[in-house]
Amino acid sequence: QITLKESGPTLVKPTQTLTLTCTFSGFSLTTTGVGVGWIRQPPGRALEWLAHIYWNDDRYYSPSLKSRLTITKDTSKNQVVLTMTNLDPVDTATYYCAHLNGNMYHSFDHWGQGALVTVSP
Amino acid sequence: DIQMTQSPSSLSASVGDRVTITCRASQSVRTYLNWYQQKPGRAPKLLIYAASSLQSGVPSRFSGSGSGTDFTLTISSLQPEDFATYYCQQSSDALVYNFGQGTKLEIK
Fold this sequence. Notes:
The complex is a heterodimer of chains A (121) and B (108). Chain A has no helices and eleven strands. With 121 residues, chain A is an all-beta fold.
């Protein structure tokens, strides 16, 4: 059974750096074809893909946010960490991590419950 | 970047109706197109992958079709639990896996 859970601060001040951790179970990030992605959703708005990382350490970022994002993995801890710098109130959103299945046309087939992050002074 | 455009943005329908949602890509994504359902306050759920493959556990009233740039998600007979927001997502461009803007399906 695959599960994922996001953790991190709920309130961040503008210009600060956000660090979110995705802790997962039921799969390994050393398995060929497997990845973990981050997707966010501002209140009342659409899903926005942010980044993903694969078992082979290939990393991909949203072009509009690439300069602010870093994604890393720790296979020994079953964790993926997303760092976003220079936060702004428009970054207020629910942040999801999801299992990326490279053997199912790179679909996000399991999702965490999401973590709401508010950016406010 | 490949842009994904869904239509309509919102849709009102009744239980038992047949509903079709369209997703168009700005360039070919072959069949690397996935559909998700999201209910308020919940994480998205994968319904369809590879344009037409039904995810395990998803009712057979959901179906997907298309290839290249034009795709459809069809619900053959709407059930009360199907009222939600639906998103398409392309995974053809290895660098960017973006979503459409969503289609909100409401009860008429």
